Amino acid sequence: MDEEEEEQKIGKSARQHSCKNLVAERKRREKLKDRLYILRALVPKISKMDRASILGDAIEFVKDLQNQVKRLQEQLEETNPEEDGGEQGGAGALCNGDNSDENGLPQVEVSQVGSNRFFLKVFCEHRRGGFVRLMEAMTSLGLDIVNVNVTTSEPLVLNVFEVEVINLKSLILSIFSFPKDLK
Amino acid sequence: MDEEEEEQKIGKSARQHSCKNLVAERKRREKLKDRLYILRALVPKISKMDRASILGDAIEFVKDLQNQVKRLQEQLEETNPEEDGGEQGGAGALCNGDNSDENGLPQVEVSQVGSNRFFLKVFCEHRRGGFVRLMEAMTSLGLDIVNVNVTTSEPLVLNVFEVEVINLKSLILSIFSFPKDLK
DNA sequence: GGACACACGTGAGCC
DNA sequence: TGGCTCACGTGTGTC
């Protein structure tokens, strides 16, 4: 009927295209928007409501979650000495070298005080965050830190750890014989 | 030539606005695109490359990660009933509370021993990794940890920190008065 | 009034 | 060919 009449105009191609593409585009936009909102709802930390911020927060959140998963897996491995599975890299938190000064090598002394218990004295220059890294290194190695005493007379610091050992003593020694790993 | 004629018609306001808005819009689009790509790079499961799919995959991935975290936490609690893995310790990542167990509240005591120096005693149940998180929390708050002494008689542990304060005491108190944040 | 963020319709490219 | 996605420039609203 009328449908065929209008076609003789020049505008057919354009009009048809516009009309169909229009609604399709609308749907696409709407879908995108919905997913963005869903993503925003999943992310607890919302800095701002704008799209870019939503994405940015989502990115950070994903990173945080991944770190958290990694940590938990490491912790689980620690508490469960025999455990199969994962080949994913753990225990790699030691090597973080952005340090240029060569002096101040830590003096390390290991003495055995029980069947699987050790005193570990680390005497070195004070570095911010170094102690935490030391702790993390040990715990990530499966060492149970029973007691720790840190005494500073700047710029020097003496760390005394009492650790319950799960792994071998040789492992400990090998680790602490690479001072650069501890910086 | 013709350009100047046309400008007088509607006025230059429109043109200037267009020109500035144009480039701004371009930047916005580009930023959005970049973040989308970053997000896509973080997500291992990539079904398709189109925007909606990227968002969809990201959504699913976040859900998966959350489930995984939950599972790991449960597992950790299960194998080691006394301990609790907690929130990840990042900068300012203290407030992330879904916490149900109420027992084992740490006793915290803060005493001022100098103009900006404090003793901080934290007496609580021993939790694996808890001490490191404590340290990280403090350092991330700008506290200079001068001295620390940790003494354990399982399952209890007494942490004594001597800290040089950069921020306000009220900040410290406010933080340590919410024990659930320290888990 | 200007900076900013968004939705819109449209042209172009790709299966 | 037609459906689908994307980038673009612009109009409009808000702070």
Question: How would you characterize the overall build of this protein?
Answer:
Chains A, B: Keywords: Nucleus, Transcription, Transcription regulation. Two copies of one chain form a homodimer. With 183 residues, the first copy, chain A, is an alpha+beta fold. Chain A folds into two domains: 2-79; 91-176, Alpha-Beta Plaits (2-Layer Sandwich), CATH 3.30.70. Helices cover 46% and strands 19% of the residues of chain A. Chain A is built from five helices and four strands. Chain A has helices at 2-6, 12-42, 51-79, 130-140, 169-176; strands at residues 107-112, 117-125, 144-153, 156-164. Chain A has a four-stranded antiparallel beta sheet, with helices on one face. Chain A is elongated and about 85 Å long. The N and C termini of chain A lie far apart (85 Å). The model of chain A is unreliable at 1-11, 83-103 and 167-183 (pLDDT under 50). Chains A and B meet through helix 2, helix 3, helix 4 and strand 3 of A and helix 2, helix 3, helix 4 and strand 3 of B. Strand 3 of chain A pairs antiparallel with strand 3 of chain B. Chain A binds a DNA duplex (15 and 15 nucleotides) through helix 2.
Topology:
2 copies of one chain form a homodimer.
Chain A: H1 2-6, H2 12-42, H3 51-79, E1 107-112, E2 117-125, H4 130-140, E3 144-153, E4 156-164, H5 169-176
Antiparallel strand pairs in A: 1-2, 2-4, 3-4
Helix pairs in contact in A: 2-3
Chain A binds a DNA duplex (15 and 15 nucleotides) through residues 14, 17-18, 20-22, 24-26, 28-29, 33, 50-52.
Number of helices of chain A: 5
Question: What is the CATH architecture descriptor of the largest domain in chain A?
Answer: 2-Layer Sandwich
The CATH topology label of the largest domain in chain A is Alpha-Beta Plaits
Identify the overall geometry of chain A.
elongated
Please indicate the count of domains of chain A.
2
User: Largest interface, per-chain counts?
Assistant: A-B, 48 and 52 residues
